[in-house]
Amino acid sequence: MSFNKKIIAASLAIVSSLTVANTAQAYPAGSAPTMSVSNYANLVPGQGLNVVIARVHSGCSVTVGWDGGYYETKTASNLGRASFTNVTSPSTGGRYDLFASFGAGCFSDQGNGLTRSIVVGKQLKQSAVIKTSSRNAVRLPIFTATGKITWGVTPVSGLSVRVVLHKGANSYTKTVTTNSSGVYSATFGRGNGATITAGTYRVTAVIDSDATYAGQNIDSPSVRIN
């Protein structure tokens, strides 16, 4: 073999070995499986996600779905990947676990899985404040709980909010609606749903999950009546 032919053969051997090494390094099957999820920011209920499970054994049976909901099973490719498109999110907003579980053909991964917590629905911003007309219980003070709800910087009008006044183990609830500025108000005391006596009070404002919003709770600072 000539000197030039030896150089060419050696070069081909190096390229071949690097290709094999890079392939093995890119897809170390069965070594620390991964889950990648796209387009999940500001996920609308019922919207689909794209999910890729990688670094599993070729032929591994992979099931992807939502806790208590949609699921789909696929077989991993020769590269140790299973791709899922349009994994439909739950129809009601909230925080859910997206899971991947490994079945037959997954060797040491069988019986294991991955999860990712994802918020479904628009995430609102809200504030809650409790004010009292007096700190003297003898004068039968009135509590007024107010708050404002926005999506980003946009006020959310017509939204139902449950306002719960807490005193120890006792609670009083009113349901109110936000106005055009996203503001709500609820009054307690003097026949308005609670008898205010001495003690420490706080308010919880509750937005329930629905087909648009993720839902959330927020507590106000406490106020003490002496």
Topology:
Elements: H1 3-26, E1 34-38, E2 48-54, E3 61-66, E4 71-75, E5 82-88, E6 94-102, E7 113-120, E8 125-132, E9 143-151, E10 154-155, E11 160-167, E12 170-177, E13 183-188, E14 199-207, E15 216-219, E16 223-225
Overview of the molecule:
- Mean pLDDT is 82; it is low at 5-27.
- The strands form 4 sheets. Strands 11, 12, 14, 15 and 16 form a 5-stranded antiparallel β-sheet that branches. Strands 4-3-6-7 form a 4-stranded antiparallel β-sheet, with no helix packed on it.
- The chain has one helix at 3-26; strands spanning 34-38, 48-54, 61-66, 71-75, 82-88, 94-102, 113-120, 125-132, 143-151, 154-155, 160-167, 170-177, 183-188, 199-207, 216-219, 223-225.
- The longest helix is centred in the N-terminal third of the chain and has 24 residues, at 3-26.
- The chain is mainly β.
- The protein has 1 helix and 16 strands.
- The chain has 2 domains: 27-120, Immunoglobulins (Immunoglobulin-like, Sandwich), CATH 2.60.40; 125-225, Immunoglobulins (Immunoglobulin-like, Sandwich).
- A hairpin with an 8-residue loop joins strand 14 (199-207) and strand 15.
